[in-house]
Amino acid sequence: VVGDRVFHLIQQRVRGNLSFARNWTEYENGFGDGYDFWIGLRIINELTGNSPRLLRVEAVTWSNVLYVCEYSNFTVGNSTTNYTMNYGSYLTASSNTSMDSLNYHRGRPFTTIDRDNDQNPSVPAPTPPRLRWLVVRELLQRESKWHVLSLCCH
């Protein structure tokens, strides 16, 4: 909950003990332990496919500094699109980061370590694995600097 807005958590990394080095099927179905989790591409598609949402990315540093990015009209396509991600715009007024870090990933399909769908032969599948279209590069470049990382949609 942020103000009067209620968000659905789609990814959360609190403890960092759970490996996100997962295959396509695991990302499609979801995985986690209650503290660190990914709800699954199918569920994200159900939440956003026909009803664009607000995407909010929150990262908290070990020194308790909160960084926020928000994006309008966030959608994730279905399995026939390889869960292609789109959004309307980066919302500068409700974000405290310096740039739209998702712009490169807009309109691109999801990629995992065992299924490289990004159609860019010069960029191998993520190693270590990252959510190719959900990498907020400015925030996630060094995951060890974040105490809590959450992706959520409203």
Automatic annotation (TrEMBL):
SMART domains: FBG (SM00186). PROSITE patterns: FIBRINOGEN_C_2. Residues 1-154 form the Fibrinogen C-terminal domain. InterPro entries: Fibrinogen-like_C, Fibrinogen_a/b/g_C_1, Fibrinogen_a/b/g_C_dom, Fibrinogen_C-term_domain. GO terms for cellular component: extracellular space. PANTHER family: FI21813P1-RELATED, FIBRINOGEN/TENASCIN/ANGIOPOEITIN. This is Fibrinogen C-terminal domain-containing protein. It comes from Macrostomum lignano.
